[in-house]
Amino acid sequence: ATPAARSKVDDIIQQLSAINPTTNASLGIGDSTFNSFEERPPIQGCWRMVWTTALDVLSLAASPISTVSAIYQDIQPPNRAINIIDLIPRPQAALPPGFLPTLVRAKVITSTQRRNDNRIGLIFERAEIRPLQILGVEIPLDAKFIPDVGIDFPNVSMLGGSNSEDSPGYFDVLYLDEDMLVIAQNEPGGVFVSVKADNTDPFL
Hints:
Shape: globular
Keywords: Plastid
Number of helices: 2
Pfam families: PAP_fibrillin
Protein name: Plastid lipid-associated protein/fibrillin conserved domain-containing protein
Oligomer: single chain
GO cellular component, one term: plastid
Subcellular location: Plastid
Order of helices and strands: HEHEEEEEEEEE
Number of strands: 10
Strand order of the largest sheet: 1-2-3-4-5-8-9-10
Number of domains: 1
């Protein structure tokens, strides 16, 4: 985006933050009784990112090997959030849609905890990557011939902490309604604007 476009979006986000209709966005996070709520937790659901200023995410699109197809955040109360990044080979972006597509999905699995009304703490637990499609051939999730590749992150308790209160990771909800979520992460910084998605299936 151009500097002018970024500035305009920043202004819109500030205006939205001032009229955030959801003052308790973290309701149900870290609460094992959330299934008994008359209404589901407000932030629950699958969110598809449409805008960000986070350099760690923007750098993904700068890779000479691959580029981003889609990014999701699947928030599953009471204590799970999964960040999903779908990557495609960079040359594929220049080809007609559907021409021998290849798609690789990366996941970062975190546990979540309510910090305050609009702040959600994160503990990074595991990262995984696997192909979903190779040259137009879809790879079943239960395919045994392609093993999952993953790595477990160190447990916070091993680093001297005990829960997400001790973890440096969290995000603040700036705006939330039924269709849009705007959050700001503390480290490495950046704002994310996402819209509600039905699911994370790239083939639907």
